[in-house]
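RETRY 2/3 - previous attempt timed out on the joint model. Re-submitting the same 355-residue input unchanged.
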Amino acid sequence: MKIKDIKVKKVRVRIAPSPTGPLHIGTARSALFNYLFAKKNKGIFVLRIEDTDLERSDLKWTQDIIEELKWLGINWQEGPDIDGKYGPYKQSQRLDIYEKYIKKLLDESEAYHCFCSEDELEEMRQEQIDRGVSPHYNGRCANLLREEVEKFLDKNKSSVIRFKIQNKKIKFTDLIRKEIEFNAELLGDIIIAKDLKTPLYNFAAVIDDYEMQISHVIRGEDHISNTPKQILMQKALGFNQPIYAHLPLILAPDRTKLSKRHGTVSIRDYREQGYLPEALVNFMVHLGWNSGSEKEIFTLSSLVREFSLEKVQKSGAIFNIQKLDFINSFYIREKTIEKLTELCLPYLISAKLIE
Ligand code: GLU
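RETRY 2/3 succeeded.
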């Protein structure tokens, strides 16, 4: 199946960062690919802030994400700072919407309250390991009588909401990785919310992708194991399934997943080190996309013409800092002396070399 053979009414894509830290280069790369895909297909690019984890989320990271994406020149048409037809675009402001769908799943017995304690879950886990079975929730609370559930809830017995995983095999076509098959039986019934007002990532993402009419979900491969769970929820709720494209992981030169221990990973840090936005954009597009030629220099506007998801590779993308330095030096040399002076000033001031 070719990407152009799949017809969708309107291309609507999104990035959905969790504001738990500064904008990471992996998220910025996903933003860039989504932005280019939307531009190329005359679609809409949405910024959605996934801040349901209140303990880990912080407004300062939402601001950092917005500022750094703007600095890179990656703009969106709908988002928390500009709103839009499908807002609000912060999950913490959408709790009523999630509650409606959690209730629907509970009413239709697609989800249930689970009252198992930590100790009981640990016992279940151990017992499964002893039997050589991979640990998963065994559905113990799925068949509680309605009266029992009411009684426990009245007594404020601590609980979570689980979604019943019924299908055994889930198949989907990923635009990059092609056919993917997953055995859902291994999952066990998953927790979708702590309570009616506290949804967890997989559930909230499914609701928002549907409510915001997202046509393509283009995100990092680290989310591939979430996709079957999300598809099962879409099926239970009668939602259309978006088209998925999972971008290859960004790997350090030692071929392990790029992380802080390998050096700088936040866009702000690159900016502070003197990298130019056009250099970072040009560098990031090579993290998984192959133009099919030797050409290395691409501006954002030329990428809008040249980029295509068909040329995104499956295998991990190696992060090569020498390449970033090479690209950055190219763009620096392109600057006029006036522009370069202007760009250098903040760095000279912060180094206290001038006042
Ligand atoms: N909040 C998730 C993250 O930051 C979003 C994943 C997705 O795109 O579905 O990784």
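Residues 16-18, 50, 201, 205, 219, 223 surround glutamic acid (CB under 6 Å). Closing ticket.
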